[in-house]
Amino acid sequence: MAADEPGLRIDTAHSFAGFSVRAAWVKRIDGRFAHIEGVVRPEAGQAWLLEVRVASGSVLMGRESHEDWARSADFFDAARHPWIEFRAAGLSKTLLQEGGAIEGVLSLRGISRPVRFELLPTECARPGVECPVQARGEVDRSQFGMTARRVFVSDKVKLSFDIRLREPAA
């Protein structure tokens, strides 16, 4: 994503991506990423294209042992796959304001798969600029080659994005 691309850039200081998994089928383990970047840019007509990149090695979980595990080849494999990427086309302002399903492609550990997230309704005239755009979804980690510790860690991974946008400097 070049700095001179048209559109709105993700405000990295005010946006975040997170995840949660169940361990031992009881305890929920949460994490978030310290680095998220991307752009929302116009397509033909009134549609928008969203591209999000999350640095997989920037995971924060509150415990160093959990963070080391999440970065390892057992989970995100950050050394070999430093970016988690999501791309969705055809977004409308109405969808961003009212919420609803958003379909796109998630690339994780070098594997790209179609996924569906749910956009939450916003309460502002300019979603992303005046208030965050929030998306929630769930993926099966085994579909992305994350098969280690299946006895102790659930296959379902819940993902969340809270995205703020910044307008280009005049």
Automatic annotation (TrEMBL):
- Domain Lipid/polyisoprenoid-binding YceI-like stretches: 7-166
Q: Which InterPro entries match?
A: Lipid/polyisoprenoid-bd_YceI, TTHA0802/YceI-like_sf
Write down the SMART domains for this protein, in alphabetical order: YceI
The record's Gene3D superfamilies line, in alphabetical order, gives: Lipid/polyisoprenoid-binding, YceI-like
Tell me, what's a Pfam family for it? YceI
User: Could you tell me what this protein is called?
Assistant: Polyisoprenoid-binding protein YceI
Say which species the protein is native to.
Aquimonas voraii
